[in-house]
TrEMBL record:
This is Chromate reductase. The lineage of its organism: Bacteria, Pseudomonadati, Pseudomonadota, Alphaproteobacteria, Rhodobacterales. Pfam families: FMN_red (PF03358). GO terms for molecular function: FMN binding; oxidoreductase activity. GO terms for cellular component: cytosol. It comes from Citreimonas salinaria. Residues 2-144 form the NADPH-dependent FMN reductase-like domain. InterPro entries: Flavoprotein-like_sf, FMN_Rdtase-like_dom, NAD(P)H-dep_reductase.
Amino acid sequence: MPKLLFLTGSLRAESSSRAVTRALIEALGDRATCETADIAALPHYNDDIKNDAAVAALRDAIGAADGVVFVTPEYNYSVPGVLKNAIDWASRPAFDSVFKYKRCFIVTVSGGATGGVRAQSHLKYVLAGMMALPHPGKEILVPFAGKKVENGVFRDDDIMAFAGAQMDEFLASLG
């Protein structure tokens, strides 16, 4: 059974990104083992910091996963700083990090009509720089995400069906 690590780009407990993450994990059921990473525990990236437990835990979790699923909001036309910070920590050593050849699946959310398409593009660019392998399937964009969360539960059957089909392709690519 494939093991997936979910990295959510929002720290807010009631964020639409976290609601989408929960919905995806629930939809996967017993087809994958799923974990979520706690990126809030990471210090700001500083190469002078050595042997940080939170950094080691993140790197270990990414390394142990068959695939990494990013679910992130778009902040100011890009990914949130907290997510970029996590990626920067995990990207060391350069060109030989735990992200090298790691298969990644990206879902972006936004409060507006574009669904985070610019954040998705930026994240793919960053992942390519680390030699990670973003899933080449159709992009999963969640527009007007805040309006689709009720009591912490994401509700959009069409997006979940579309995302589910793409997730099935991603799982198949993990071999």
